[in-house]
Amino acid sequence: MKKAMQVRIGYVAMSTVIKNASPSRTMTYKQFEKLGDIEAGYRRLERIAEENLHNTLRLLKHNRMHDIHLYRMSSKLIPLATHQSLQDWDPFPYLKPAFSAIGDYANQAGMRLSFHPDHFTVFSTPREEVLRHSIRDLTHHVRMLDAMGLDDRAKNNIHIGGAYGDKATAGARFIHQFSKLDPTLKRRVTLENDDKTFNAVETLQISEKLRLPMVLDIHHQWVNNEGERPQDLWPRIHATWREEHVVLPPKIHVSSPKNDKDLRGHADYVQVEPLLNFLRAIAPITTHLDVMIEAKMKDDALFKLMDDLKQYTNDGVTIKDQASVEIEG
DNA sequence: ACCTGTCAAGTCTGG
DNA sequence: CCAGACTTGACAGGT
Q1: Residue A145, pLDDT score
Q2: 0.85 cut: is pTM over it?
Q3: DSSP A301-319
Q4: Mind spelling out the 3-state secondary structure of A92-122?
Q5: In 3D, which of A24, A35, A7 has the Cα closest to residue A75?
Q6: Which H or E element spans position A54?
Q7: Which positions 264-303 on chain A have a beta carbon less than 7 angstroms from any atom of strand B?
Q8: Cβ of residue A87 near strand B, that is under 7 Å?
Q9: Nucleic strand B contacts from chain A, 178-207, CB < 7 Å
């Protein structure tokens, strides 16, 4: 009997299919100031956040309708949440029911949810102030996951950060500064290789040292590598997920180059063949895999990819449902 | 309805 | 040392 790898596919933040369902509506600090009334400003921000959370729930329902069990939420659910001048504001009491509704729905549907704090969360920074802001941002993301009632399988995916002219020192500083974080934060983190600075080999070393699961971005690995093939790193990357106290399939990110001039930019859709080649290479040693699509066309790119995969059904690919496939090694 | 500039946060590069 | 590039979705303000 041939081994087959179960692959689930997901997408990020917003839908290009469902209209008027942005989970990232915001308000600028300038507008907040212009209101003059701080309390009124807080209430308006809370309403916007409530709407973002409501739209997130709408997206989850859309996902369930299309068998999508993998979804990364917007980091901008609460506008100005970590803004320096709004430290006295606590929007969570008001938003608790809306957060719970999301978590309850996801838990019931068996969905895997995550965040990706943006690249301002940098634990390799030499600046004390930036480190403080990074901790604040990560804490905020963990608090949102907690408010949803999601267990530690729901992660915050981050990059290592800048090199500051000396990558080895920056990497060591990341390890040092990350190690000092509260365990409740550390448990919620995965590390991802980036497309400019910390490549897959370097990120993997740090993941192993800190015992953190590593998310392999195969597009980043393609533009930032040491000559290795991604499948050659896979046994070790796969192993970083085995230390999880809960069973969690390894996750990878996939996107395709925007064009010949801009290889790092993300295209509207995902090319099926490079992805399929990688999936076939790791299928013999992997039982489950989650694939996050990072394409401009979001869920539409997911549907297109599933459609493209259909032409390989006589070639080791079995379509299981609208968002998952089985790949033979 | 559509277009252009701005926002928010960091790092990095060029002058 | 400082201005600008980079990135992203959405706001803000203009036509």
Answers
A1: 96
A2: yes
A3: HHHHHHHHHGGGTTTTEEE
A4: HHHHHHHHHHHHHHHHHHCCEEEECCCCCCC
A5: A24
A6: helix A38-65
A7: none
A8: no
A9: 197
| pLDDT single digits (tens) A161-180 | 999 999 999 999 999 999 99
Find, among A158, A153, A46, the residue nearest to A106 by Cα.
A153
Identify the residue whose Cα has the smallest distance to the C1' of C8: A118
Q: What is the pLDDT of residue A4?
A: 93
Nucleotide in closest CA–C1' contact with A170 = B11
CB count in 10 Å sphere of residue A221: 24
CA trace torsion A208, A213, A218, A222 (10° rounding): -20
Per-residue tokens: A52: 């973002």
* Nucleotides of strand C under 7 angstroms from a protein beta carbon: 7-12
Q: How would you classify the pairing of strands A4-12 and A155-158?
A: unpaired
Q: Is A97 exposed, middle or buried (0-12, 13-18, 19+ CB in 10 A)?
A: exposed
- Say how far A24 CA is from C9 C1', in Å: 8
Q: Residue A227, by phi and psi: left (phi above 0), alpha (psi -120 to 50) or beta?
A: left
User: What are the two backbone dihedrals, phi and then psi, of residue A131, each rounded to the nearest 5 degrees?
Assistant: -60, -40
> Residue A29, CB, less than 7 Å from strand B?
yes
Quick check: A233 and A207 in contact, CB under 8 A?
Answer: no
Regions in chain A scoring below 70 on pLDDT? 1-2, 243-246
